[in-house]
Amino acid sequence: MSRQNNQGLNIFLGIVAVILGHILAVVVMIALSAVPPISRILGDLLFYALFGIGFTQLIYVLPLCWWLQRRERTDTLKGVAIAALLTLLLNGGCFILFFSSGF
């Protein structure tokens, strides 16, 4: 019984880790877009990176998955995979919705 409770907690921790990664990525992208030389040069790239967070998350999700697998934390890895796939699917749907309607 204790194993199942611990498994659920570890999956939840994986989901929370990805959510915190998303928040940190958005803060970094907004901070980078506020720097004047970068905002002129990379403004469009940061805009698409923010809207394409489903693919941008690969920068921090893949190393996290690799690290969790090396530590044999498969339950937490499941939570990371769940959150990353949900983000990719929701972001892909919203991306198609916004850009197909002439946004």
Low-confidence stretches: none
How far apart are the first and last residues' alpha carbons, in Å?
Answer: 50 Å
Please report the total strand number as a whole number. 0
User: Major sheet, described briefly?
Assistant: none
Order of helices and strands: HHHHH
Oligomer: single chain
> Helix- and strand-based class?
mainly alpha
The percentage helix is over 70%
Q: How large is the share of residues in beta strands?
A: under 5%
Task: Tell me the count of domains.
Answer: 1
Radius of gyration from the alpha-carbon trace, in angstroms = 16 Å
Shape: elongated
Give the integer mean of the pLDDT values.
84
Number of helices: 5
Describe this structure in words.
There is one protein chain. By secondary structure, the protein is mostly helical. Helices cover 90% and strands 0% of the residues. The chain contains five helices and no strands. The longest helix has 33 residues.
Label this structure with key terms:
single chain, 103 residues, mainly alpha, 5 helices, 90% helix, elongated
Entry summary:
The chain is mainly alpha-helical and 103 residues long. It has five helices and no strands. The termini are far apart.
Secondary structure: elements and pairs:
Layout: H1 2-34, H2 36-51, H3 53-56, H4 58-70, H5 74-100
